[in-house]
Amino acid sequence: MNIHTYEKAWLVASMVLIVGFIATITYGAVGPGIAMIDDDGGSINPDEINDHERFAEPGVTHVGGNEYEVAVVAQAWSYSPSQIEVPANSEVTFYITSRDVTHSFTVVGTNMNTMVIPGQVSQMTVKFDEPGEYGILCNEYCGEYHHTMEGKLNVVPEDEFDLTELSVEAPDEVQAGNETTITATVSDGMQSDLETTVTLELGEQTLERDVTISGEGSETVEFAVDTAELGTGEHDWTVTADGHEESGTLSVVDSTDGGDDSA
């Protein structure tokens, strides 16, 4: 059978369009690196969110390997947390619930979009292959300030991501001649152990302590400070550990000035 040249051209063009449509649909489903959502997250009493094991302290949790969980609480008119950071090349399971009315959790530029209903937990497992920054919006009308309900999801390079936290307790003032203590606590949010050095810089002094912190554990380091070596006056201090930093000022006052007698 002889097919006219124009008919052949239309057949080729039609096939190209069909292939193009299939490619577009495929890219929309998996191109951004996001899997289809799973909303089988169970139920929860909205009045007991603050006491719930997962939602009492919403945020990112390392499950193991390259797997993470993120707990999010939606309420009028914000998400908690509003800023979420996860590493690239990770598989992340989101658990999202509402404290009050129906919201949505929509990640702009991906196919992550789920309703968030009071009493239910929306669950979705997604995979992020590349670093990127995504906006989070609510697409379900939830009241007067619905348009202000937004957040941000940052996917950062693996070597820039960590769940380490540093907290420091230090006195503001101490009398000359007394000893005092600056206490640093380092918490490791990852499942794997963390080896790091906690460093205190105080005046011209530099003190270091090497610590090993077990996965999901914490270690406390105490630095003894002799005010006789510092002398009276204000002394800036800085504590660093695993790229995190806390700083402050310690005032050493003469006992005749009526300062705090606590050590």
Radius of gyration (CA) equals: 27 Å
The second-level CATH architecture of the largest domain is: Sandwich
CATH topology of the largest domain: Immunoglobulin-like
* Number of distinct beta strands: 18
> What is the number of helical segments per DSSP (H or I, 4+ residues)?
2
Class of the largest domain in CATH? Answer: Mainly Beta
Q: What is the mean predicted local confidence, pLDDT? A: 89
CATH H level, superfamily name of the largest domain: Cupredoxins -  blue copper proteins
Shape: elongated
**Kindly, what is the distance between the CA atoms of the first and last residues, rounded to a whole number of angstroms?**
102 Å
Question: What fraction of the residues are assigned to beta strands by DSSP?
Answer: over 45%
Number of domains: 2
Task: List low-pLDDT spans.
Answer: 259-263
The biggest beta sheet reads: 5 strands, mixed
Helix content: 10-25%
Structural class: mainly beta
Q: Which sequence of SSEs, written as H and E, runs from N to C?
A: HEEEEEEEEEEEEEEEEHEE
Describe the structure.
- It is a single chain.
- With 263 residues, the chain is mainly beta.
- The chain has 2 domains: 115 residues, Cupredoxins -  blue copper proteins (Immunoglobulin-like), CATH 2.60.40; 94 residues, Immunoglobulins (Immunoglobulin-like, Sandwich).
- The chain contains 2 helices and 18 strands.
- The strands form 4 sheets. Strands 1, 2, 3, 5 and 8 form a 5-stranded mixed sheet that branches.
